[in-house]
Amino acid sequence: MRSTTTLHDEGVLRLEGAIDRDSVRPLIDAILEHSLEGGREFLRLYVNSHGGDVDQGFALIDIMHWSPIPIHTTGMGLVASMGLLVLMAGQPGHRAIMPNCSLLSHRFATVTGGNHADLIAARRQQDLVHRRILDHYRRYTRLHDDQAIERELLQSTDRWLAPEEAVAYGLVDRVWTPTAGEAL
Question: Which CATH number belongs to the domain containing residue 40 in this structure?
Fold first, then answer.
């Protein structure tokens, strides 16, 4: 009888759709489980996400950084907003995108309400989030100052990128092109 191998058994993780607590929790659990089990050279995270909750995305990124097992990332389909930040956080040298992947980089958006004091507190949080995002881009791209990052990748309008542009900016390391016998 043939045993069934699962994606988990092979160290394959998938982030698809919105980034929220429900999509991030099983990924964090899987990274923690693999880290406890040991014996794996790397994990592979496939990202096909339009983005979502910044705090949940950074929770996943923090666990990716903590993991003693390197996490290789591959973008496919649509990788946008917080999904792009997760893709960028993969092990340097092992961040790839598929040739037909659509990529979007932009400033985060939020809705704020409340009294004057609430608005002041919310603005402080928004400034902290923007700073965290700038620092993330600085860490993972070839752009090393805030003005260049904002001018090139965090413009006031959506910034769509071709796969080759993502490589040129250092968002990813390569566009995956299939060769005989090569696995991603």
Answer: 3.90.226.10
Residue 143 token pair: 């752009």
Nearest in space to 43 (alpha carbons), one of 105, 89, 100: 89
89 Cβ contact partners less than 8 Å away, ≥ 6 residues apart: 61, 64, 65, 71, 73, 136, 140
Q: Encode pLDDT of 25-45 as tens digits.
A: 999 999 999 999 988 999 999
To the query of whether residue 3 is one of the catalytic residues in this protein, the response is no
Catalytic residue, candidates 35, 102, 106, 130: 106
Report if residue 129 sits inside a domain. no
Q: What residues make up the domain containing 161?
A: 12-109+155-175
CA distances from residue 46 to 11, 67, 69 in whole angstroms, order as listed: 11, 17, 16
